Amino acid sequence: MSHEHFDNVSIYPESSTGSFANLTSNQLPPAERDPNPPNAFVYHARKVYHPLGFKKGYNFTLFVIFAGIMFLFCLIRLPYLNVTGSASWSFFSNILPSDRYWYSNFTIYRVGITMHLAAIIPAGALMVFQFIPMIRYKLLIVHRVNGYIIITLVTIANIGAIMISRRAFGGGVEVQAAVATMAIMITTSIALAYYNIKKIQIEQHRKWMLRAMFYLGIIITMRVILFFSARAVNKSGEYWTAVDCQELQFAYQNITVFQQRYPSCLGSDGKSVSGFVAVHGIADGLVEQVSVGWKLSFGMAAWLSIILHVAGVEIYLALTPRETERLRQVSYQRQLERGYANAGRGGLTADKLGDAIKWTPNQG
């Protein structure tokens, strides 16, 4: 996410390679040749990732893995934009009957899930393009406009997620807390990334955008954990959960069968009443019994995924201090050109807000 000070200027400029930038190794003067030329694989790989703006192979590899998974996940979820459809690939056809009950009968939840899906799926796909260096270098206006679109979509998606958190996968307090935590983490990261680029603090912008990207990916890891955990819970046969009688009745087309299976959901007059009934989680049981594993596992999967992604992105940032320092130097030069009184510390830096040693620019 860029801003007006960077018209036609890369916000992540690489150091210049001089007048020999477009020459192959054999064409360079002897003094400029690489003493350890790349092997055939690396040579051909560079022909793939250099045009995209990547200078290091490991950066491209990580991009392909993480951004590729994010983009693929969003493509697979595109059919979910048909929220209430009856097609086998629609959202309603691939959720728990209990969730479908709330989304079908209550406007606030139907609006919430529609907002969330319609915003988060395109936001996740568009986020990938923010990390392609070539776009930042040569198509800065695209980078900027795309950034504003992502901010808007993520905000809408977070509002929708909070609206449905009371009912999604049982809507327990652990689920509501996890959804709120993810919304806060993502919103805060994007807000700080936006603020820092406004202040031309590029290395902080990079850090917070990477965090936002990793946090958006929590849902993918969560789905993987949930898939295996739900099956393990049901297979064990040791878990029960309380289910709303109205949710159960909604799942049954034959009211007589429902009344026979769950007599505790009936009043003295034989009519359905509001209340809850204990349902046993069984792997090969009825749909409401299979749903038990998914409901009980969702909160756990969410919190475990949050921890994994927070740890993962912080480890990556800790392992790339040279890139942080390079961008800090770029920030210093840009801020100096704009007349900042404390060039290098225009944004939210540790030496400005905390007790870190004051950063000094490299004058070499």
From TrEMBL:
The keyword Transmembrane helix applies. It comes from the Eukaryota. The chain crosses the membrane at residues 60-80, 108-133, 145-165, 177-197, 209-230, 300-319. The keyword Transmembrane applies. InterPro entries: DUF2306_membrane. Keywords: Membrane, Transmembrane, Transmembrane helix. This is Microtubule associated protein.
